[in-house]
Design brief:
By secondary structure, the chain is of the alpha/beta class. 35% of the residues lie in helices and 19% in strands. The protein contains ten helices and ten strands. The strands form three sheets. It has a six-stranded mixed sheet, sandwiched between helices. α5 (142-158) crosses α10.
């Protein structure tokens, strides 16, 4: 990948992705090396696991690691990666968003949820730039995510930061078969048909630079309601796309489908 990375959509899957990186995790590590090489000052991350009434941004210099999940192996709860916060970047970002009539609060007590720290672990296994996390207001639509992403992306380019939308390309718990598709299992190839059809539609619209289609995917994409019974894990995609510069290129990262229905597809937006 020779061009500058401006934003990334990362499918963070289930929390045990932290311990089972597979091909998607390996791809993120290679991506992280490029982020370091291009001198990335900070990451600005949006995750579906921090919902709020209004926009907010983490502003502590060392936010705690939040294990916001239940019933997983003990080893997951023992993971406490050291990730520095970016309070100066957070303060400037909050000011910029507020000036754009997107009133944004600083949240010094807010920690990093697994939608933020799990991808970071794979991007930077040996440590990397500081990170700040943006909340996802409960009233967001795809169009809102795209538009806010554009503001955040412009800010990021001015401050040598990179924007990350962390979600999952498909995310339907009812369709997941936790017994049939472990990492490296041949059963992974037996994913449900709608997963690949949805992925193909998304990739076509991304490659065409069709932000309107990505923002309105809930109305037009095949199987959207099944891929996303709740749109919270989808909204980071239009957010990341909105943060990309004009005439961006899309790099499609290696995918695997876990539990027959959970696509780990990620995209890097370069330019």
């Amino acid at each position: 990948m020779s061009q500058t990375i401006h934003s990334i959509f990362i499918s963070h899957g289930a929390p045990n992705y932290a311990l089972e990186p597979g091909l998607p995790g390996q791809a993120l590590e290679a991506l992280g090396q490029q982020l370091i090489a291009q001198g990335t000052r900070a990451l600005i991350v949006l995750s579906p696991h921090w919902r709020s009434a209004k926009l907010a941004v983490t502003s502590h210099e060392a936010p705690v690691i939040v294990h916001d999940f239940y019933g997983f192996p003990k080893a997951l709860y023992e993971l406490k990666p050291e990730i520095c916060g970016a309070p100066e970047v957070a303060a400037m970002l909050a000011t910029t968003l507020t000036e754009k009539n997107l009133v944004t609060e600083l949240r010094p007590q807010q920690g990093f949820d697994h939608g933020a720290w799990v991808p970071y672990m794979h991007l930077f296994p040996n440590g990397g730039p500081p990170m700040t996390q943006l909340s996802m207001p409960v009233d967001w639509t795809g169009e809102t995510a795209l538009n806010v992403g554009a503001v955040v992306g412009e800010f990021a380019r001015e401050h040598n930061a990179v924007v990350v939308g962390s979600g999952s390309l498909t995310h339907n718990f009812d369709d997941m078969d936790i017994h049939a598709a472990k990492v490296g299992d041949a059963m992974q190839s037996l994913s449900l048909a709608y997963v690949s059809e949805f992925n193909a539609w998304i990739q076509e619209r991304l490659q065409a630079g069709d932000g309107k289609a990505i923002a309105r995917a809930e109305f037009d994409a095949p199987h959207f309601a099944r891929a996303h019974p709740d749109d919270d894990h989808y909204l980071p995609l239009p957010f990341a796309m909105g943060a990309a510069p004009k005439n961006f290129k899309v790099d499609v990262l290696p995918e695997d489908v876990r539990y027959k229905a959970l696509s780990m597809q990620s995209f890097a937006f370069t330019g």
